[in-house]
Amino acid sequence: MTAFRYRAVDAAGKESAGVLEADTGKAARGLLRERGLFPLEVASVARDSGGSRFTRRRLKVSELTLLTRQWATLLASGLTVEQALAALIEQAESESTRQLLAGVRSEILAGYSLRAALDRYPQAFSTLYRASVAAGEKSGELARVMNQLADYLDRAHTLRTKTLQALLYPAVVAGVALLVIVSLMTYVVPQVVSVFQQGKQALPLMTRALILISSLLREWGWLLVLAVAGLAFAGHRALRDSTLKRRWDRWLLGLPVLGRHLRTLDATRFASTLSILAGSGVPLLAALDAGRQVISRLPLADAVATATERVREGQPLSKALGASRQFPPLLIHMLANGEATGRVGELLERAARLQQAELENRTATLTALLEPVLLLAMGGFVLLIVMAVMQPIIEINTLMR
Q1: d(CA 303, CA 300)
Q2: pTM, whole model, 2 decimals?
């Protein structure tokens, strides 16, 4: 049977859409008529999937995690892949997810493997996801691999959520501080300083600088905003060039605090990916290639590529990665221990968890320090503005005495 996407109306003229299964398009229209619906459009999901706006979209991490967890549970209960997909289609809340799963199920019913079916939807299922599923199919432990994937996705989503939550308050403080300072410079300062400009006394340097900055913001502030936006856009486009991005990443990784944080973040992703693939029976070279694709910083990705070549020549992975000096020593030592004991997947997972805990602690510490720094910076700017306004008044009072 094949999955068909349809649009139909009932006797009252109300339109509905969904997915149903039938042998042919004619049979699908017949099923709709039996339900009291008049078909407007009936198309095969498998045929339509390449360009459908539903199946080409990315799944949210939380949505993919829940889907993978449910899929693993259904497989562990004894259902076949096709039966599990049928249950997931009924369970899915969004129409786009139903369309996606129906397309995968149609490929399986057509005789393709699950890996081949997922390959049709690379935007929804990452390289890591598809490689793990292929390993699970070959080893006959697809349910266990799907559970590992769900755990990995859950940890990644948790880390991202905690990081965003930790940065939310400092971002709000910075935004409010910027708004207050711009308001003072563009509305309050001109009204107060205009009194001094009418006098004949020479204004202090700080006051003259304040007047100049205020005038520039009021007259050319829009141009400044456009310039900043243009620079950001130009920088984003420039980083598409691999040479420039490699230099930028190398500079970021060399920073005292941020560099270590970014290095640990990529090392965590790499270790998690490698632990899943190695534990699922994926060949090491293929696992290294998939792990390199989840790394954001090019110097680290280059180090993995170089290590892959050395492993292909027969060198141990821990020694090959350690020679680059790009990855945290914890990861290298855990990997070496795993190679010595034959528990590479297990120890890589432990290393990933330890590094994730380190990232969460460091993020909490940095954001806790960032909040008072932002408040002090805002207070410093306001103090400068007040001093620039008050200095002429103090000088006038001094002269009057």
Answers
A1: 5
A2: 0.68
